[in-house]
Design goal:
Largest sheet: 5 strands, mixed
Strand order of the largest sheet: 1-28-29-30-31
CATH topology: Methylamine Dehydrogenase, Chain H
Low-confidence stretches: 1-34
Strand content: 35-45%
Number of domains: 1
Oligomer: single chain
CATH class: Mainly Beta
Structural class: mainly beta
Number of strands: 34
Mean pLDDT: 91
Length: 448
Amino acid sequence: MKSFTLLEKILMKTKFLVFLCFLSLGFNASVSGQSTDWPQFRGPDGNGVVSTLNFPETWSESENVAWSVDLPGGGLSSPIVSQGKIFLTTAVGAKPPVSFMEGVGDMRPKKPDTKVKFKIVSYNLKDGEKLWESTIVEKQPKFPIHGSNSYATESPATDGKHVFVYFAAVGIVTAFDMDGKEVWRQEIGAYPTGNGFGTGSSLTLGDGNVFVQCDNDEKSFIVAFDGATGEIRWRKEREGRTSWSTPLFWKNKNRNELIACGSGFVRSYDPKTGDELWSMTDVGMSFSASPAADDQKIYFGNSGPRSNGPLVAINNSMSGTSAFAPDLKTEGLEWMVMQAGPGLASPVAVSGNVYIPGRGKLTCYSTTDGSVSFKERMSLGSMAASLWAAGDRIFMMDETGKTVVFEASDSMNIIATNQIADDLFWSTPAVAGDSLLLRGVKKLYCIR
C-alpha cells in the first residue's frame, strides 16, 4: 500500500477543500439565481417589490437597451421570467389596444369578426431570441372588449417546472412544460364583463396551486387548480359583478392568505381549502388595482373616473365579516383614509410607506398610521402599469413609457426620468436580476 508524505496529504486536503468551495459556490449561485426569476404578475411575492436594485436606473432609446424584439399580435399581459426564459401571451388577429385616451372615446366595444390566435411565446432573456411559441386555441371571442383593452391581458405564471396561461376571453387555463409541451388544460367558460370593457385578472401561485379569479357580469367565482395535474382543488362562487384586480397570495407572520378584491368587497381565503378567513363588504366600486403588501399588513382601495374610494390597511389578525364604514372599528383594521384609493395602477409598500398613484399625482402614506408623508404632482400621463420597487428605488411609468425613478423615503427625491420609445405601455414591467423588461404593444424591450 502506498504511503503518502506529509506534503502530499496537505495537497490532497487542500484540493478537497477547494472542491468543496466550488460546490458551495455553485450551489449558492443556483440558489441566488432563483431570485432573478419574476414568476408571476408583480413578481415573486405578487407585490411589485424586489430587495435589491441590479438593473440600471437610467435608460433611453440609446442607453442601456440590451435588445428589443417585435411582438406578434397584441396584448397587455406582463412578461414573466424563469431560468433565463421569458414568457408572454398575445392575441394574433385582433385589433391591438390603443391609448387610454383614444379608447375612452370609443364607447362601443366590438368583438373581432374573424378568428383570433391565442398564443404564448418564449424568448431568451440573454438576447431576445425566440425559443418557442404555441397557439392555445384559434377561435372568435364570444364577447367584445373596449378599444384600450386586449384579448391577452391576463399575465401568465410559472413554478419553474410549468408555465401557466389563462385567456379569459375564451375561458381556457393551460399548463406547458418549460419547452412548450402542453401538460394539462381546463375550460372554465367565458363571460360578459362590465360595460363590455373586457377582462384583466392575472394568475396567482401559492401552496402548489394556480388561482384564477373570474369576476364577471354573469357568474363570478374563484378556483384553485393543482399546478402539477390541473385537478380542481377547490372552487368558490362569488357575489358581485366584474372586477379586474389580481389575487394576492399573502405570506404574513400568522398564516398564508389569498386576498381577492371584487366588486365592492374584499375577501380572504384559506389557499389550501378555499374556506373564508375574513371579508369586508361595501368597499366602494369594483377593484382594478391589486393590493400592496408587506409581511405585516395589506393595503387596498379603489377609485374610478368619477369617484374616489377609501384606502384600507388590514393586519394579519383580521377575521369575520365587516361592512365598511368611515367609523368602522374592528380587530385587524389598522387604519383607513377616505377618498385615497388607487385607480388602475397598483401601489407598492416599501420602507415604511405605501405609495398610491392616481390622476397625475403620487401620495405617500405611512404604513404605521396612514398619515400623509408627502403628496406630489407628477409629470406623467395616464397610467395603467403598476408601480414597482427595487432596493431603495421606486419606479412609476405612464402609458407613453415615460418613467420617473425616485427614492423610497418620507419625502420626494427624484433620481431620474427615462423615456424609452414611441410605443404604448400598459403592461407592468418585469425584473429579472440585472435586466428590466418593458412590454409595449409593439415591442419587448430589455434594459440592462
